[in-house]
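(Structure overview)
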Amino acid sequence: MEWTRSQFQNWANQVAKSFDYTVEFQPIGMEDPEVDSPTQMAVFRR
């Protein structure tokens, strides 16, 4: 199953909050003005 951007960000935000981390989202790949980037990553920091 593939998540939407929103589903992934909601999950990552919940995990970060549960374990006292911050999370930042970064695009991966060339960004398209109509559909954004092909994928994204989350960077967790304590």
Notes: The helical segments are 5-18. The chain has one domain: 5-45. The mean pLDDT is 96.
